[in-house]
Amino acid sequence: MEIDRSLIGTSSDTWIVEVERGAIRRFAEAIGDDNPLWRDAEFARSQGYPDVIAPPSFPVSFVMPDIPPWWEGLDRKRFLAGEHGFSYTRPITVGDVLSCRMTLLDVTRKEGRSGSMDLMLQEVRGLDAEGRDVFAHRRTTVYRGLDSKVRGS
Hints:
By secondary structure, the protein is mainly β. The protein has a domain at 5-19 and 64-144: Hotdog Thioesterase (Thiol Ester Dehydrase, Chain A, Roll). Helix content is 11%, strand content 36%. Residues 6-135 form the FAS1-like dehydratase domain.
């Protein structure tokens, strides 16, 4: 099965992420970043933040409860992670309750030495409890073609 390009511009259902202090700490530990902004509330407040803030790549940890509609029927073994990019109107902070939704922005076909692939450009946007934009996480997911060869094979 191939990606249904008619779904470009569609979005997933909204899901809620409640940002917890422990989740930020565990994420910072997992990426090996000991910045006190991610761990020390007093330090974060001394820098003008209301509490501990999350590292910039934190939204990669936000797991959708369901798969997006454009992934339905696709072979997950053919997925590869691609590029990620983040933009913010303000930092993500302990206590935030974020409404998140993923949108399929584009699908581009590429041909390479290892075969064909489709690049799915997707964006997760997060809004705060007042409905204001907090972040946008753009990511590319590579969907390898059936003719793709895995390196080393």
